[in-house]
Specification:
Elements (H helix, E strand, L loop, with lengths): L16 H17 L5 E6 L6 H17 L2 E6 L4 H13 L5 E4 L6 H11 L3 E4 L5 H6 L11 E7 L1 H18 L9 E7 L5 H16 L4 E8 L5 H14 L5 E4 L2 H13 L8 E5 L3 H9 L4 E4 L4 H13 L5 H4 L2 E4 L2 E3 L4 H10 L25 H9 L18
Parallel strand pairs: 1-2, 1-3, 3-4, 4-5, 5-11, 6-7, 6-8, 8-9, 9-10
Antiparallel strand pairs: 10-12
């Protein structure tokens, strides 16, 4: 950091006496309180209309305003190779000083390599590296790549597990058991090149194995590119193969709506199946309100703002690794009809500016002894009401069973 003396403008030398002293005092006072403004790049692998990434952009923009960061947003329009080119141009032409991104179609390792070459600190968020690429980094941030400083991602395996639990319990309460006394479930995952999809399936399958006495997981298929139309196609064939399946586990909102499209195309009534997903979109919340979707896990778009907090503190000399390590994991929040009205208002009104991201920062709050990134707490603050105690979507930890 420059000293106060280095910030004195040469024109002050033209003044003498009291005038010079007064100007010098103003200069030194300004130097004492001013903080550097860093330029950070946010890399969106999709586009501005994407229901998830549009929320990520809005949240990170709100956090940047709170933290006095100059934010530049880059959108790759579903092209992982374009994102790699954008990343290098952002460093060499736009002169970004740090970056936030996820692993999109396994391009994360290449972005980390570029960051290392240009000595740009980066935080990976939302989607972690594949197991294969993670091994090539030495096992995580600051192993083989010192400028990959940290990671904050959802606990996707627990999310898949929790969704299976919520659907299983709802189905049992509704008496949806088959003739063998078990609940028949079918599942549609997302793109298998996406590690979040793989982890969600792992959590689902773990739950199904533990509860095989009362749950029959018939089949898991995938919808390439998380495609709504592919999900519609897959569900139509799954239901033909397993007509007694009354429970549908969907890895995302787009997949859940593909299922609802298939039900509508067959003149079926929404609500005949117990359907749940991972996503949290405005459309998904409306479907919960109408009863065609029963539970949704989400809130992970908030991670973008928290990733920026970690980056901000690191750039200002408060290294999070010294107190909490380099890996952060968030628990997604399951929501049913009990909190839909309040949370829908948050998403609809885009109240992200009401969440002061400085409260998470050790630069702004040196008394903090750890980082606490909790989706429920943040959403309840934004909704302006106390947490619900509904048992309809209770959330057991996958690690406790």
């Amino acid at each position: 950091m420059p000293t106060a003396n280095t910030l004195i403008h040469p024109f002050l030398l033209a003044f003498k006496g009291p005038a010079a002293s007064l100007l010098l005092l103003f200069s030194l006072c300004g130097a004492a309180v001013a903080e550097p403004t860093f330029r950070v790049g946010l890399f969106n692998p999709h586009d501005a209309t994407d229901s998830f990434w549009s929320k990520v952009e809005a949240v990170v923009t709100a956090a940047a305003e709170d933290l006095d960061i100059e934010l530049k947003i880059y959108r790759a329009d579903f092209d992982h190779r374009l994102q790699i080119r954008q990343f290098e141009r952002a460093i060499t032409e736009d002169r970004i000083q740090a970056a936030l991104f996820g692993d999109y179609r396994q391009n994360g390792l290449e972005l980390i390599r570029q960051a290392e070459a240009y000595q740009i600190p980066v935080v990976l968020f939302d989607t972690p590296l594949s197991f294969h690429n993670l091994a090539r980094t030495g096992g995580g941030p600051r192993q083989n790549f010192r400028y990959w400083i940290g990671e904050i991602v959802p606990d996707e395996a627990t999310s898949g597990y929790q969704l299976a639990f919520a659907l299983h319990q709802l189905a049992r309460r509704r008496g949806f058991q088959s003739t063998d006394g078990r609940v028949a479930m079918i599942a549609i995952s997302g793109d298998l090149s996406d590690n979040s999809s793989v982890e969600r399936i792992r959590g689902l399958q773990r739950y199904a194995t533990i509860h095989e006495a009362t749950l029959d997981l018939k089949q898991v298929v995938n919808a390439p590119n998380w495609s709504r139309s592919q999900a519609q196609f897959q569900f139509k064939h799954l239901l033909r193969r397993y007509p007694d399946s009354r429970v549908v586990w969907a890895a995302s909102d787009s997949i859940a709506f593909g299922v609802l499209d298939a039900i509508a195309a067959q003149d079926g009534e929404p609500g005949q199946q117990v359907l749940g997903d991972i996503g949290w979109t405005e459309q998904g919340f409306e479907a919960i309100n109408q009863g065609s979707l029963h539970v949704s896990l989400g809130g992970h778009f908030l991670q973008g703002g928290w990733a920026l907090v970690l980056l901000h503190d690191y750039l200002h000399g408060k290294d999070f690794a010294s107190i909490q390590g380099t890996l952060f994991s968030t628990q997604l929040l399951p929501v049913g009809r009990d909190r839909i009205a309040a949370y829908s208002a948050v998403l609809r009104d885009r109240r992200w500016a009401a969440l002061d991201f400085r409260r998470y920062s050790r630069v702004h709050h040196p008394e903090l002894t750890q980082y606490s990134f909790d989706i429920r707490s943040a959403m309840e603050d934004l909704a302006g009401s106390a947490p619900s105690t509904s048992t309809a979507i209770a959330s057991p930890s996958a690690r406790r069973e």
